[in-house]
Structure formats: C-alpha cells, structure tokens
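Protein modeling request. Please complete all fields; requests missing the sequence field cannot be processed.
Requester role: graduate student
Desired output: 3D structure, token encoding
Chains: 1
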Amino acid sequence: MNRKEISDHQKLLEGVDDVLDTAYSLYAEFNEAFNGLEPVKFKSYQTKSDFSFEPSEILFKLDREAYFAELIQWYGNNVKSKHKDLIKYLKEEGKLNTFSELVLSIKRKKIAPFIGAGFSTVKPLEYPLWGKALKEIVNRLEDLELKDVEELLKDYKYLEAAEMLLEKDSTQFINYINDRFSLRRDFTKDDIFISPLKLIPQITSGCVITTNYDRVLEEVFKYSSKPFEGFMHGKQPNSRFVTDLIRGDRCLLKLHGNVGEPETYIFSLSQYNDAYGELIDWTRPLPKTLRQIYISHSLLFLGCSMEQDKTLELFKVIKDQNEFDVPDHFAILPKPGSGTKKREKENRLLEINIKTIWYPEEKHEFVEKLLELANDVANNQLKI
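Delivered output (384 residues):
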C-alpha cells in the first residue's frame, strides 16, 4: 500500500469517525456517568505525551453492542431513580391505580388533553387568567363607572362581568383580547417550546381541546413536527372538526375562539347562550362536538380550575341522560387545603367520570413531573 492509498483510506475513515462521533455525543449524560474520574492512558512511541481516552469512548468504538447494553441498563436505572419520589407520593396519596389508568389511556392513544389557562401563565408567556384579564380591561376603561362590574368580579361572576364590559365598550374589549393574547413577535422557539407545554405532543396523537385564545399550542405542536390538521374555533360555523375527530386526525378545538378572529370569541353570557343554547342545544356545533369527544376519548384536564362552568354542566347533562357509555376522564389538580373542599370537589367530578390526581398546593412543577412519568411508563421505559 502506497502513501496515497493510506491517505485516501485515512480520509474515508475520518468521514466514518465524524458520523460515529455525532452518535456518541448524543449520549453525553451516560458517557459522563460511565467514565468515572480518570481517563485511560496509552504511551506514545513518537512523543513523550500519553494518549488519553475516556472509557465510554473506548467501549463505543471497540464493542458497540456492549456499549448500548450498558446504556440501556443505565437509562433504566436512571429513569427509576428520577421518578422514585413521585411514585412514592402517588402510592401515599392512593392515586397510583388512577395514574396507571391514565397511562393505559395514553398507550391506547385515547387521551385528549384539555388545556386551561394555567398552562399559558408560565414564563415567559405570562398570559393572564381570565379574572385578571377582566380586571385589566376595567383598568383600561377607568373613565367609566364600573362599580357593578367590580362587584361581579369579586363574586367570580366572570360571564356577567364580561357581558357588562362588552356593552360598555366592545371596541376596547376586543382590542384587548387581540393585543394581550397574541404571540409576541420577538418570541423564539425557546420561549414557546417549554415544559410542561412541550410534553403535550408526547402523550397524544389526536384531539386537543383548550379554553385559551392564544396560539401557543399550535406553535408547540409545529415545533414537535406534529402540526394540527383540523381546527374548530369557538362559534366557527361549517367546521369539519367532528369528521376530522372521527377520522383520527390531529385536531385542535379552541372552545373560546382564536385570537385575531373576533367572530369566534365566546366570553360573555350572551355569547355562551348563542354557542350552547340557553338550554343545551345538541344541534349546535360546540355542544355536538364536545359530546362526541366526551363519549369517545379520555380527557386529561391540565391547567384547569375545574370549577363549575358551561363545559362541565354539559358533561353532567350527558352523564345524567344515560344514553352513552362514558369513558373515564382525568384531571391533574392542586390539592385543596381543606379536606372538606377536596372531598366535595372530588365527588362532583366523579359524578361526571372525571378522576382526580392531586398534587401539593402551589407546587405546580408536579404537573411536569407527572407528565414525564406518564410518558416514560407509556413508552415502556419504566414499570410502576
């Protein structure tokens, strides 16, 4: 073999090495754990310096089968360690069986996440909850007499308060929604593709429901390479959403409308009545669509208060009519401080087939941990 052949062979191997180095770098966390403190050293024939290699690098290059066997074993142990305290908490709370049922629904691709405003309040998004939003609108209309509205807000009568504000100045109200709930132009992928939002595409391949006006979910699913294929926005007429839903397409139902489309908005009492009927009208698009989801999917409520509202009232009507077999649904919620409040809320939700998984009050990071655990178990990375 001459020098040119050796040089050509070296270049070929360098190309292979580039591919292997890229693959090796994917497992940096494992490599660091495997390496220990000291690299392996070899004497050089040419210089007084030693060659130095990490143990993981040697194993990867010389026996890839053994490397990946060690990687799989380490990953399993690491996953167990990561979730150990959370699994213990679920056992202590008596919620491990409920959690296992949730995981089974994820495995069967039956979960439809129902995303509330709580998921859009995280930094750097910081969209307001609806009560705060209404107060901000009141501040914009400071030149008007709004004591009646302020009293309604104190009593959490948000539909009635929104109705009065809309009557006072619909232009300012709608402009506030369009402005406050739009995505900031300076937001990057790193600002939007954040936990726990980025975990949602990992647990569902079909329908997602949200009460939020913003377009965060659309962006999160786009960044996950799972863009939505079908949409229904609030009072939007002539939607093919139910057809998309039955077909199994990835589709998004925005119950209260889509920012920038005022004709789809639902936030006042009259708009709710128009969308649902004063008595629920099953011929109207929203009630019909929600009923189809409620009887065909397992909803997972995230970032929702689960206080009584039009959606839960609708589910109660369906359950009481006893015309359909209703699957189990799930809600991940902060545990109320009072045992009585916890029991009453749990009972009210159980009446409409919604099982609760409680986490410690104010410790909202538990939601992300629970979703990560559910995803790992659903993907057979861990048994509980």
